[in-house]
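Amino Acid Chain and Its Fold in Token Form
===========================================
Purpose: to set a sequence beside its fold so the mapping can be learned.
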Amino acid sequence: MAVATNTHVLIVAFVMMYVASANTLTMSDDTVVNVTFGDFPSLYAFENADNTVNVTVIAYKGDSMATLQFDSTNPRIFQIVNQSSTYIELSPSAYYPQSFSFDVRGIALGIEDLLVVMTKDGASAVVHSVTMKVNLQPKAIMVVVKYVMLFCVVVGFVNMGGTIDLKLIWQKLRRPWGVLIGILCQFMIMPALAFGLAKLLKLDAPSAIGLVLDGSCPGGHLSNLLSVMLDVDYVLSLTMTSCSNILAMGMMPLNLFIYTPPFTEGNAQLETPFIEIGIQLVLLFIPLSIGMFFKYKSPRINRICEKLLKPLSGVLLVLLLATSLPFQLFIFAAPRETYIAAFLLPLCGGLLGLSIAKMACLPMRSMATIALETGVQNAVLATTIITFFYPHPESEIASRAPYLILLMTIFEGILLVVVYTFVKTFIWKPREDEEAFVDDKGDDPDVEVKKNGTTVTAMVNNGYLKEVNENDVDGDVKKSEIQGQGCQTDFDEMCFTNLDFINI
């Protein structure tokens, strides 16, 4: 069966080599045939269903009999029913136009060409082609799935707004290097990386648009969830996510304007709906503002949102997968190149973010946070935009890339958490004085380190203290008294490789 299919593909490829090449055929130069499938630019069929196609031969000019037959560029997407008996005889003496019909059978979701092949005097040539689009069978449940996705996005933004502490964000923005590097990676590195992967792997146009759209998205809740599980800088993660979601209202349409035209040229169905996407992003700022309003209206709501952040993010993710994945199994029929792109985009994005943060000499926790925020884009937002604003079946094909990226990101994130937990439990264990310092300071920014210097001095003597604030130690330790070798920058934390504290 596989041999027969491959042979068929080779034959089709051989026939297509003769498109617009009448000089290589034994047909006479004055042979003319005009075929039309009506005023429709594309033909449609449903998966696992037959559809009747009407064709009209408007004119035929030739000196002998000829035949027309129909073929598919990819029989795994659609096939001609009873192809061996589906042919049209053309006679120079017949009257035209003449209409005929034949059946096509949709096999799987996809977009291919239906070829009209004319055979005359023992030579064959493709004289006409039309796009054939195979859609999924319409299901009412897909409407529910679409709005469940939108619900998850809106609830996630409300919850994010309820956890935003402007004081903490302002502290990060006062020394904005980590945030600026993260935004650089999210809105400059990731879209260019997605475009490069799409070109390198030669993805089809809808899949390439889905990949670029995902790479242009801001950070999502999954990165915040992973930052909590991996004990990195959650405040920086939340700050980067908040800033990127605000900037996405302008940067996302801009990146789509820059990187999608090579894939949409000549295809009006794939033109990027910039206005609709912009409106969608602006509207998503409303639930974010609602969450921020309730947070400052009631500190209790802030505590509830912070407690719910981790479990609610997990619940929304499980809800999204449980309600959509069983009805979107077509994503797993994506070409191998789409799988490779979905695996490489978050992985390479994270590594590039880590490398740039390393070159900027940021602390380890900030480096890990930037890597997470760069590699983990809001794939749910990308899938929602594609579902609402692109036509069928382009939307289903384009959504494969961000959906697979979501699954790959979850897989890679779980792997990181498992490895980190194993290392933390069995290989590397914090010392008691470090644990005491962390427990004393906690995650609550309102709880300050005690100024008696006991814990601080212990941390300094053991080299664990990465940041010393002269206002918190009553002048016992001054920044001018800190001597170190390594990178001394004005970033979020002071990064020293060999600490040497004097007169403590």
About this structure: DSSP finds 16 helices and eleven strands in the chain. The CA atoms of residues 264 and 271 lie 6 Å apart.
